[in-house]
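Dear support,

I submitted the protein below through the web form. The confirmation email said the job was done, but the results page showed an empty box. After a refresh the structure appeared. I'm attaching both so you can tell me whether what I see now is the final result or a partial one.
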Amino acid sequence: MKENYKDRIEKAKQIIANADYILIGAGAGLSTAGGFEYSGEKFDKYFKDFSEKYGFKDMYAGGFYPYKTEEERWAYWSRYVYINRYLEQTPNKAYSKLFDLVKDKDYFVITTNVDHQFQIAGFDKNKLFYTQGDYGLFQCSVPCHDKTYDNKELIEKMYFEQKDGKIPSDLIPKCPVCGRNMEMNLRADDKFVQDAGWYEHAEFYQEFLDKIKDKKVVLIEIGVGYNTPAIIKYPFERMVYQNKNFNLIRINKDYPIASEEISSKTICFDEDTMKILKDLR
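What the results page shows now:
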């Protein structure tokens, strides 16, 4: 029988207070909880012209649309990245509440999110592992080499100089090594570049995992679905199963259920994420 909400909150607060370390695994649901939406008012405000011309109804679909030219494709992507990565530097409220919850603990974050919100909210960049890329980076589309490039300056030029849904041809990003087109550094296929920074933060993550063995650890899994369960969801469950002093707090409106083998060590929430984060404080 499911415990009432208040009892679950009190139990979660207690294990967090007693923990030596906090390991956070975050997915897209965390950004959504704080107000980020691919559709709705924000989409209508910034992408009405794209919607009318191409027929897609949300930002996510626009990223996969088969544009006929690079000028059109980069008009869309530069607008998308500028608005979601550079224009809005006010911390997403869900990330801010999560930071308030763990900032006085020894924590680490592994996330499939690519929107930079953890750093905007104040999380230490050396305690973050972005596994799937970053809206703020370009890579070669081939790729001919394993390096990424900061895209802020060029994205802003594309955004401000686009006209009639196209960017000037001379702004199409080109690889400085082979001259072919650049691409967003987002994991979509086997061409995703894992650069030196990616491997450095993967090492930070492994060092944290080595450090917390046999310690009192709370794993907070928040907003993680089943698109890429092998990155966070399954490893978190395995760690809780294998370590007697590990507990899992799972916050997920759609997938709140614990595996039977670790149900006694898991506290599940399917209530409003913002309320949960507030009440845990």
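Response: this is the final, complete result; the empty box was a page-load delay. The chain has two domains: 5-36+92-132+194-280, 41-88+137-186.
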